[in-house]
Automatic annotation (TrEMBL):
Region (Disordered): 220-273
GO cellular component, one term: extracellular region
Naturally occurring in which organism (per UniProt): Bursaphelenchus xylophilus
Keyword set includes Cytoplasm: no
SCP domain boundaries: 25-184
InterPro entries linked: Allrgn_V5/Tpx1_CS, CAP_dom, CAP_sf, CRISP-related, V5_allergen-like
Matching Gene3D superfamilies: CAP (3.40.33.10)
Keywords assigned by UniProt, alphabetized: Signal
N-terminal signal peptide: 1-16
Protein name (database record): SCP domain-containing protein
Residue spans of biased composition, Low complexity class: 221-264
């Protein structure tokens, strides 16, 4: 079976399928995959483009937030390959030839994280954009101050702005708070593991974790189904600069080919096509 991957930006299509929320198992899979990669980086076990990444002093663990999932679900259900306008940080991914949603949840995070091979160690302390290499999905996944996420995976009869090779495919969206990818900000603070965890958090398995009672939402099972109406909206997938209240976004570049494309977006920071 040939599996086609695509992970990048999105405009507004029609889905003929009834969409559903992620199950507890699927939520746990995507949450655990994010935290596994954060932990690997925090422990100084990850090779980057030009060396091993430093250990992290303040790497926050992700917790799952169903209110953030609401935003991801609303956008994913449109089946349009473009970023939403109502989000914090955002990564998107599309795949055809795979029907196991748990597997798709895991492979989406794997795809985003795989950009580490193009990431320079010096950018840990001072995030900047290399126009020739896409790394923004990776940096959003491991952004030190990002600690809440919510995701959705929609089954799409077609995905607008993608080729027919993605018909009857799946479109995954993850949104993040606090958003990442701010230009000139540190991706995380390097130093002794957990030595600078934020107040109110404790060190647990190399990550800074909030007490259980303070988490915003549990990874609970939700089996509600939602019908998605027909919505279309024209837009072009091209290089753009979006302005925000504090600063303008900067585009990082593009990545395409048989293996696919990924896109991440953190307002006031970076947009990748």
């Amino acid at each position: 079976m040939r599996i086609i991957f695509f992970f990048s930006c999105l405009v507004l299509a029609i889905s003929a399928f009834t969409q559903r929320r992620l199950t507890a198992e699927e939520r746990a899979a995507i949450l655990n995959q994010h935290n596994m990669y954060k932990r690997k980086v925090a422990n100084g076990q990850q090779e980057a483009r030009d060396g091993k990444l430093p250990t992290a002093a303040d790497m926050r663990a992700y917790e799952y937030d169903v209110s953030i999932e609401d935003l991801a679900f609303e956008w994913a259900s449109n089946c349009v390959w473009k970023h939403s306008s109502d989000h914090g940080g955002e990564n998107i991914y599309a795949v055809s030839g795979e029907d196991n949603v748990t597997a798709i949840a895991i492979s989406s995070v794997d795809s985003w994280f795989s950009e580490v091979k193009g990431f320079n160690v010096s950018n840990v302390a001072d995030f900047e954009v290399d126009p020739n290499v896409v790394t923004g999905h990776f940096t959003q996944v491991i952004w030190g101050k990002s600690y809440r996420l919510g995701c959705a995976i929609a089954h799409c009869s077609s995905i607008e702005n993608l080729s027919s090779g993605f018909d009857n495919g799946y479109f995954a969206v993850c949104n993040y708070e606090d958003r990442g990818n701010y230009i000139s900000w540190p991706v995380y603070t390097s130093g002794d593991i957990c030595s600078k965890c934020p107040e109110g958090t404790t060190c647990e398995d190399s990550l800074c974790v909030l007490p259980l009672e303070s988490t915003t939402a549990s990874v609970q099972s939700t089996t509600e189904e939602y019908s998605v109406g027909s919505t279309t909206e024209e837009s072009s997938v091209q290089s753009t600069t979006e302005e925000y209240s504090t600063q303008s976004t900067t585009e990082e570049g593009s990545s395409s080919g048989e293996e696919g494309v990924s896109t991440t977006l953190g307002p006031d920071s970076v947009q990748i096509f």
